[in-house]
Amino acid sequence: MPLIALTGGIASGKSTIARRLEEHGAVIVDADQIVRDVQAPGSPVLQEIAAAFGDEVIDASGALHRAALGARVFGDDAALKRLNSIVHPAVRAESARRFEAAFAADAESFVVYDVPLLVEARVDDPWDTIVVAHAPAAERLRRLVELRGMEPEAAQARIDAQVPDEKRLEIADVVIDTSDTMAHTLEQTDAVWKQLTGR
Questions:
Q1: pLDDT at 14 over 90
Q2: Dihedral angle computed from the Cα positions of residues 124, 89, 120 and 193, in that order, rounded to the nearest 10 degrees
Q3: Termini Cα distance of the chain
Q4: Whether 58 and 79 share a structural domain
Q5: Quick one: which of 49, 27, 28 has its CA closest to 38?
Q6: pTM of the entire structure?
Q7: For a 10 Å CB count at each end of the chain, is N or C smaller?
């Protein structure tokens, strides 16, 4: 029942690696999707966020107003800490439930947890392998601007808000270098899959 953590900074190619591992038969549990699910309209987590940050972080449809919440916590360490204390335990519980469900369905599953904030929130969990998608910050900045249409300042702020690359590389069991071509990234991912599964 191998449990693999896949992490990487913004625009590091992590999603490409996750898709490839899924093609090989891995079960992908997506942390970002879990965050959206636990913050769904009417959820206890969303109610707690509104109580902590005010009703302006809920939009007219009753859903989380992400931009308003982002503006409220960005650059405010205490507010971010408060938000994380609400969201992280719910994400941890729901991810554990999904891991268990995957292994209950097939005890031989390879479960990959696609998690951007591994270093920040989950590094001490009992992972069998930690895979880090890595491209230099300058390359990730280029992708955010050229491929996602972000303003350079906003893109740089998103990169700066995450832990430095060194912190992710320190915890890596395996590093997939995504700074070259897509084919090179997929080739490395295939090799990692073989290594993980002994195939």
A1: yes
A2: 60
A3: 16
A4: yes
A5: 49
A6: 0.91
A7: C
- Hey, CA dihedral for 5, 9, 13, 16, is it positive or negative? positive
Q: Which of 58, 81, 101 is the last residue of a domain?
A: 101
Which of 9, 25, 199 has its CA nearest to residue 112? Answer: 25
The single-letter code of the amino acid at 9 is: G
User: Of the residues 82, 101, 120, which one is the last residue of a structural domain?
Assistant: 101
**11 labelled as ligand-binding?**
yes
How many other C-beta atoms can be found within 10 angstroms of the C-beta atom of residue 152? 11
Q: Which domain holds residue 74?
A: 33-101
pLDDT tens by residue, 65-123: 998 998 888 888 899 999 999 999 999 999 999 999 999 999 999 999 999 989 988 88
Say if residue 16 carries a ligand binding annotation: yes
Both 7 and 64 in a single domain? no
Kindly tell me the burial class for residue 20, based on how many C-beta atoms sit within 10 Å of its own C-beta (0-12, 13-18, 19 or more): buried
Q: Are residues 142 and 159 in the same domain?
A: yes
Rounded CA-CA distance 54/69 in Å is: 9
Structure tokens at 192: 């990692």
How many domains does the chain contain in total? 2
Q: Is 13 annotated as a binding residue?
A: yes
The per-residue b/e assignment along 53-81, b for 16 or more CB within 10 angstroms, e otherwise, is beeebbeeeeebbeeebeebbeeeeeeee
Residue 195: other Cβ atoms inside 10 A: 11
